[in-house]
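Tokens for chain A. Residues wanted.
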């Protein structure tokens, strides 16, 4: 039986259960936190306790796995996630490797690589492979998937380099890929074309944030390749209100695409994008929370005619297939 690596160790893919495919525990920039946050808007014990409580509540809703694409650029810090996972029995947390950059590579890669000042094989590939095969830093936690970005800016030289490194890591390790995209710019098409050209089977790719779009032609064009649509920002009404997201998913289910969609919120227990104003942000985005799908979205989908078997495909079967096909 295939297994997938989680923060708590390998788990049989058949035991993943109901899976939210794009959630963050924390989004925190270490330098921001260490220089401006501690003792001002960040209290470690308070925020860890809050995360534990929120994730325990999610388990009570029936969710047994969250997939956390917090990579370099979003503040990945595995020891904190390990601590939280240990206090939330019944929840698998799957973590990623890769880079979250919209235009350029980090400075730490600018001088190293093919044809650069230090002419050498792509160092990103070796770093990503190590995260997957040996573990992240000294935590022993192995990443189980890869993350890259193609935003509104498109395939800038830096973004293209990162995406190619992610694709080549996939070919070496079998780890599947999630790519953050901009639905308004239809950047999922460029992302998919590049990754497929590098040899990635589209069935190993989640097109993140596809659910920000209600353009069925665009979404079906992506899904017709076999790629998975990330309908993963429920509660972020600024990008697309929940009723519209529900209608789009229902329409795609009617057309036979339930097996190529996954659900999530892209939520977090805390994000430092807003400094210490996170609680105020939550007041004005009351549905941007881990339980919105189970409390509100699933009943709305059922009312719209989406069947329990289709919901199971989106929450259980497709995540299981995504993490088992490429092992």
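Reply:
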């Amino acid at each position: 039986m295939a297994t997938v690596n989680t923060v708590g160790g390998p788990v049989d893919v058949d035991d993943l259960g109901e899976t939210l495919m794009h959630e963050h525990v924390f989004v925190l920039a270490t330098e921001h936190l260490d220089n401006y946050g501690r003792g001002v808007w960040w209290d470690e014990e308070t925020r860890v306790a809050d995360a534990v409580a929120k994730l325990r509540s999610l388990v009570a809703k029936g969710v047994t796995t969250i997939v956390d694409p917090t990579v370099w650029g979003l503040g990945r810090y595995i020891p904190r996630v390990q601590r939280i996972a240990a206090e939330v029995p019944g929840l698998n947390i799957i973590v990623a490797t890769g880079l979250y950059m919209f235009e350029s590579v980090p400075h730490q890669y600018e001088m190293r690589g093919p044809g650069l000042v230090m002419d050498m094989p792509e160092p990103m590939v070796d770093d990503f492979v190590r995260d997957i095969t040996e573990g992240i830093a000294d935590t022993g936690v192995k990443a189980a998937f890869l993350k890259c970005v193609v935003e509104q800016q498109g395939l800038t030289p830096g973004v293209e380099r990162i995406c190619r490194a992610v694709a080549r890591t996939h070919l070496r390790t079998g780890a599947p890929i999630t790519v953050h995209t901009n639905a308004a710019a239809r950047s999922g098409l460029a992302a998919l074309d590049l990754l497929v050209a590098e040899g990635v089977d589209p069935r190993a790719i989640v097109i993140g944030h596809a659910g920000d779009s209600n353009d069925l032609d665009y979404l079906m064009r992506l899904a017709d390749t076999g790629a998975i649509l990330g309908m993963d920002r429920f509660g972020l009404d600024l990008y697309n209100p929940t009723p519209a997201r529900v209608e789009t998913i229902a329409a795609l289910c009617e057309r036979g695409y339930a097996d190529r969609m996954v659900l999530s919120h892209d939520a977090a227990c805390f994000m430092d994008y807003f400094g210490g104003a996170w609680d105020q942000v939550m007041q004005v985005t009351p549905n941007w929370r881990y339980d919105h799908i189970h409390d509100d979205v699933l009943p709305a989908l059922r009312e719209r005619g989406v069947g329990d078997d289709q919901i199971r495909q989106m929450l259980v079967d497709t995540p299981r297939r995504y993490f088992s096909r490429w092992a």
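The radius of gyration is 19 Å. The longest helix spans residues 44-60.
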